[in-house]
């Protein structure tokens, strides 16, 4: 499990540790880990060319001390001092005594000289700002970031890519064609992950994230991201004596005569979700289409362990009755798509008899659900603060909320938040949500909690998206569906 802590939590944990350690210990631990990663990326340190982008705070100090370690091993290290008067004094002295060079930003001819050094570098270390950064890159850092992007060097961000908001992953808009954040191949982060490394757009800037343990003992995380092993532990596996009913039966109320495809896709995905059986509940003609595609499905109402309701059911009176019938069954329920639009009309009271609910809105549906709580919002507002809105919805509806998007965020009513690390833009395709609903619904029926079903469903769905788009070709929701068994194999080690 990857865990992320807020800047405030990191600062508090750092203060507690610094109170009992000799001064400078934490920075030395950070710099040592950073230098090891950089040396690994360089392969041969002796004779390599390393450029440090050094800002005015301790993030620059980390870069300078790590640069000193590489210089001692024979690398040519040049530090570009973006705030020459405020560069970390101890770090700069260490670099110089190790044989490294520095070039202050106020030196004559700095821009051209700095760009030449960047163009010739094997590795660039971004120590402009870390958790103390506010807002995006400014001149001259923004010009350098552009030069770094055009150079062939490996880019290593120190703690987090400069310009990325550590707590939210937000990256300010591009100004005058210059990047507002540095794009890294590898980020070496200290003590714990920062939320901005796990949430887009920040996550996309961070590249591969490596964690260096510096001994921090932070409290409960503000954000979690599951890994293969976490998902493998949660996924249902049939025991020897199990029968199909013990494995869980999912009731699926999806599709309408207008949108039969949603039912077929959701059913197909549910058959790959680990439940023992599936009951389709809906119009006769849609049931026939479902049966034609998936003969293993039972058609018609009956006893189920969980329901998934909503994709393609439409929003008329008949759909309202279907949703009400599902919610009256008092089993855990997943509500998606049209089901969410209808739920938003009645607000959280419609879920009062439900033992556990999972809501899976995209940003537009989230706006409707928020209106059901009496809160006005916009799509853009939700996109810009995904974690905050997912939390508010989870608390307001007393349900787990899976907010779909470039980074899918899952919040539970207690305020715990997960981000899904496996997403891909290829999943932004018609019917993709129906696949997620069927899959997560089946996991719910198999006995996972709404939050576990959301975390595992989003994870497998994302992996399947990657597998389906493996050749870089656009894929359809049906391709994602076909890739689901491959995603299970990947997670469970086949
Ligand atoms: N907190 C910890 O536990 C540890 C922190 N360390 C390092 O210290 C960093 C935090 O250091 P600081 O608190 O000094 O803060 P930073 O070095 O992240 O940045 C703060 C400095 O940057 C300036 N600044 C802020 N936004 C800017 C922008 N957009 N453009 C240009 N300059 C900007 C500020 O005026 C301030 O001088 C961490 O990210 C990490 O790299 C490590 O040395 C080890 C331990
Ligand atoms: K940085």
UniProtKB/TrEMBL annotation:
Alphabetized Pfam families for the sequence: Carb_kinase, YjeF_N
Catalytic activity entry: (6R)-NADPHX = (6S)-NADPHX; (6S)-NADPHX + ADP = AMP + phosphate + NADPH + H(+); (6R)-NADHX = (6S)-NADHX; (6S)-NADHX + ADP = AMP + phosphate + NADH + H(+)
Keywords: ATP-binding, Isomerase, Lyase, Metal-binding, Multifunctional enzyme, NAD, NADP, Nucleotide-binding, Potassium
Highest taxon in the source lineage: Bacteria
Binding sites annotated in the UniProt record for (6S)-NADPHX: 58-62, 130-136, 159, 262, 312, 362, 434
Cofactor list: K(+); Mg(2+)
Known role: Catalyzes the dehydration of the S-form of NAD(P)HX at the expense of ADP, which is converted to AMP. Together with NAD(P)HX epimerase, which catalyzes the epimerization of the S- and R-forms, the enzyme allows the repair of both epimers of NAD(P)HX, a damaged form of NAD(P)H that is a result of enzymatic or heat-dependent hydration.
Binding partners and assembly: Homotetramer.
Family: In the C-terminal section; belongs to the NnrD/CARKD family. Belongs to the NnrE/AIBP family.
UniProt protein name: Bifunctional NAD(P)H-hydrate repair enzyme
The organism of origin for this protein: Streptodolium elevatio
Encoding gene, per UniProt annotation: nnrD
């Amino acid at each position: 499990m990857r865990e992320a802590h807020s800047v405030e939590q990191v600062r508090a944990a750092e203060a507690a540790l610094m109170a009992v350690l000799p001064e400078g210990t934490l920075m030395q631990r950070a710099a040592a880990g950073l230098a090891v990663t950089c040396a690994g990326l360089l392969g041969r340190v002796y004779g390599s060319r390393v450029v440090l982008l050094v800002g005015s705070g301790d993030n620059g100090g980390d870069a300078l001390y790590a640069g000193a370690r590489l210089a001692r091993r024979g690398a040519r290290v040049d530090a570009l001092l973006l705030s020459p008067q405020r560069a970390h004094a101890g770090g700069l002295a260490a670099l110089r005594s190790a044989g490294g060079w520095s070039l202050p930003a106020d030196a004559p001819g700095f821009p051209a000289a700095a760009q030449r050094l960047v163009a010739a570098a094997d590795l660039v270390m971004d120590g402009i700002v870390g958790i103390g950064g506010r807002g995006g890159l400014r001149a001259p850092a923004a010009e350098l970031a552009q030069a770094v992007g055009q150079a062939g060097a490996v880019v290593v961000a120190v703690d987090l890519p400069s310009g990325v908001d550590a707590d939210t992953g937000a990256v300010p808009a591009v100004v005058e064609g210059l990047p507002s954040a540095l794009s890294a191949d590898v980020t070496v982060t200290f003590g714990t992950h920062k939320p901005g490394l796990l949430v887009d757009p920040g996550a996309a800037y961070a590249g591969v994230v490596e964690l260096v343990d510096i001994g921090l003992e932070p409290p409960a995380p503000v954000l979690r991201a599951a890994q293969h092993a976490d998902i493998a532990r949660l996924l249902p596996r049939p025991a020897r004596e199990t029968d199909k009913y013990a494995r869980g039966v999912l009731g699926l109320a999806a599709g309408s005569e207008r949108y039969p495809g949603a039912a077929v896709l959701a059913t197909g995905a549910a058959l790959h979700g680990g439940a023992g059986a599936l009951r389709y509940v809906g119009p006769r003609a849609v049931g026939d289409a479902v049966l034609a595609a998936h003969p293993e499905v039972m058609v018609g109402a009956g006893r189920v362990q969980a329901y998934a309701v909503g994709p393609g059911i439409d929003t008329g009176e008949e759909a309202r009755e279907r949703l009400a019938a599902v919610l009256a069954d008092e089993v855990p329920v997943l509500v998606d798509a049209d089901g969410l639009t209808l739920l938003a009309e009645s607000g959280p009271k419609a879920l009062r008899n439900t033992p556990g609910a999972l809501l899976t809105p995209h940003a537009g549906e989230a706006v409707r659900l928020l209106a059901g709580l009496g809160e006005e919002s916009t799509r853009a507002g939700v996109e810009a603060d995904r974690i905050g809105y997912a939390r508010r919805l989870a608390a307001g509806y007393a349900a787990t909320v899976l907010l779909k998007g470039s980074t899918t965020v899952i919040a539970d009513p207690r305020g715990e938040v997960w981000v899904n690390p496996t997403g891909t833009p290829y999943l932004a395709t018609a019917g993709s949500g129906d696949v997620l609903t069927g899959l997560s619904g089946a996991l719910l029926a198999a006995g996972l909690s709404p939050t576990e079903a959301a975390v595992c469903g989003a994870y497998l769905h994302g992996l399947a998206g990657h597998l389906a788009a493996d050749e870089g070709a656009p894929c359809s929701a049906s391709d994602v569906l076909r890739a689901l068994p491959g995603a299970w194999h990947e997670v469970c080690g086949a």
